[in-house]
Amino acid sequence: MKPAVHIRLVLIVLFTFLNAVSQSYSVSLEKKVNYKDWGAAWDTIFVLKNELVTLALLPKIGGRIMQYDLKDHPSIYIENSAKNTVPADGNAFIGGYRTLPSPQSDFSWPSPPALDCKPYICKVLAESEDSTVIYMESQVENSNDLKYTKHKGLQFKRVITLYKASTRVKVEVTMLNKGTSVLKHGIWDITQSDCSHNGVADTKNFWVYFKKNPNSTLGGGKGYVQYMHEGTDNSQWRPDAAPGVFGVQYLKKTGKIGADCRAGWIAFIDQQDGYAYVKTFTYEDGKEYPDSGASVQVYTYNNRNVTEVEVHGPLVSLSPNDSTKMVENWFCARSSGPANDVNDAGIITKRISAHQTADTLSIEGIYGVFYPGMVKAVFFNENNTAISSVDSFTVTPAESLTVSKKYKIPSGAVAIRLEAYNSSGSRIGVLDSASVPNPVGIGRNQFSVVPEKNISYSCKNQILKIGFITPGSYVVTLFTTQGKLVDKKVIIASSSTTLDIPLKIRNTGILQVSGNGRVESRVVNVFAK
Fold first, then answer.
1. Rounded to an integer, what distance in angstroms lies between the CA atom of residue 237 and that of residue 256?
2. Sheet harboring 346-357: ordered strands across?
3. Which residues, including other chains, have CB under 8 Å from residue 75's CB and lie 6 or more apart?
4. Which among 82, 155, 83 has a CA at the least distance from the CA of 112?
5. Helix count (H) and strand count (E) of the chain?
6. 3-state class of 262 per DSSP?
7. How much is the average pLDDT of 233-262?
8. What's the rounded Cα separation, in Å, for the pair 202 and 493?
9. C-beta of residue 278 within 8 angstroms of C-beta of residue 267
10. DSSP-based three-state secondary structure for 445
11. Domains recognised in the chain with CATH numbers
12. Residue 447: partners with Cβ closer than 8 Å, 6 or more residues away
């Protein structure tokens, strides 16, 4: 009875923990004037919080997002001289997140004023502890300036949602044609990211990462294009910052690159403080993208502590009253980079490494998570069925997760996964995974020269018979050639001891015997019919 009581107590404690966590991180909304001393001229700022992140919206100047902080760490640049001022046109440098119509070649600066710097209508569509939804709408671009001929009639609408118990911000942007002629444009998203510490430029620790397209033809097969009219220096570009990942290191030089990132993520990372800010999006195969085919772009300044992190939607021909939509999700987490990958659960700073010794698997990895909750280490079999949950870690986006563990491998395990769950206990997805590797090499030749000093073996009638030549204590382990643990026995043997192991599968396998200070491994045809 005692074990049963113990199990019930564990389940009750776990449920209580998850329930307690799910009660926190509620979303709140405040409307503030002169928020953070930005000045009364910016009028009402909509401030959304959930104990993890703070989001501040500025409807007065182009419907911008001026703050997206994880705890107290800022990510978005704000031009100090622009505070408490209202710009006359798009030449004013303000900072923040905004959207423009692409391609850039369709206009010369300043940008279309109604879309970029004029007031947006701002409404609260929904407000609860679970989420808050803000709607913003631009004026229709109606300038008679000839430089905006291709933009006349365009309008932007945004729906921005902050969720409970998450760093997720959903940004939905719709571009509409309210004009009288067909207009061909894409949605161009720009976030001006802060590359300073204490107001001083840091040319070492600020990076942007995105996944390279292995089949890209951009730049003659390089996978990216440098826009030479924006600067010819290429010292900031790091094509192999991580395996399959392109990096841009902010060096306070002018330059711009674009890439056809199909993986759908781009990350801005402060390596010194260990914070990562991620945009995720959906790449649309077969569609035409602007500026030589770029779905992401990075622009760096030589006169400001700013890197622009940009996402592009495909170009669309909009007939009058037509529209196109682009959806992004923003996330943040603790990570010092590089960004090896991004998924629904978090950012992979260091991919999982797995090493097997006999029946023990050692794993190591470093991550940032997007949701508070739990990460579980789970073994899976070859049928993709979970067979053993061996560990769990309480996690929060406010802290990085370092995994360095050893686990006994259950029979039949071929992979281990780090499964992420939110604070309500709902599964988010796989944070990382690894195959259970072979405990020893599987090449036949390397074993043919190993003398059989401790054992002899034979196979008959689906029984593996092992004879021990030298007395001692032994661990006998049987694996498939893929590293799957089939059986394990511990035996104290004399010179006449034999061990019979019934065979559960048929094929070539690996027999490993450790004892007497040595390990002997054989590739043996013990599973043959």
1. 10
2. 341-342, 346-357, 360-369, 401-408
3. 68, 69, 193, 194, 268, 270, 275, 277, 332
4. 155
5. 4, 38
6. coil
7. 97
8. 66
9. yes
10. helix
11. 19-341 (2.70.98.10), 343-435 (2.60.40), 445-524 (2.60.40.3080)
12. 521, 522, 523
Spatial distance between the Cα atoms of 140 and 179, rounded to a whole number of angstroms:
9
Count of C-beta atoms within a 10 Å radius of residue 46: 22
- Joined tokens for residue 388: 């053993």
Task: Return the number of other C-beta atoms located less than 10 Å from residue 438's C-beta.
Answer: 15
The pTM score is: 0.82
What distance in Å separates the CA atoms of residue 211 and residue 199, rounded to the nearest whole number?
Answer: 30
Task: Please count the other Cβ atoms lying within 10 Å of the Cβ belonging to residue 457.
Answer: 18
Q: Identify the CA nearest to 417 among candidates 371, 347, 369, 365.
A: 365
Neighbours of 445 (CB within 10 A): 8
Q: What is the pLDDT of residue 445?
A: 36
Q: Could you check whether the bond before residue 338 is cis, i.e. omega within 30 degrees of 0? A: yes
d(CA 350, CA 446): 32
Q: How many residues does the chain have?
A: 529
Residue 440 confidence class, pLDDT cut points 50, 70, 90: low
First to last CA, the chain: 46
Instruction: Give Cβ neighbours of residue 342 (< 8 Å, ≥ 6 apart).
Output: 211, 263, 265, 267, 278, 280, 331, 348
What is the amino acid identity at position 359?
D
Give yes or no for a contact between 364 and 353, defined as CB atoms under 8 angstroms apart: yes
Cβ contact 346:431 at 8 Å: yes
Instruction: Give the 3-state secondary structure of residue 266.
Output: strand
Looking only at Cα atoms, what is the longest distance across the chain?
Answer: 101
Which pLDDT band, with edges at 50, 70 and 90, does 495 fall under? confident
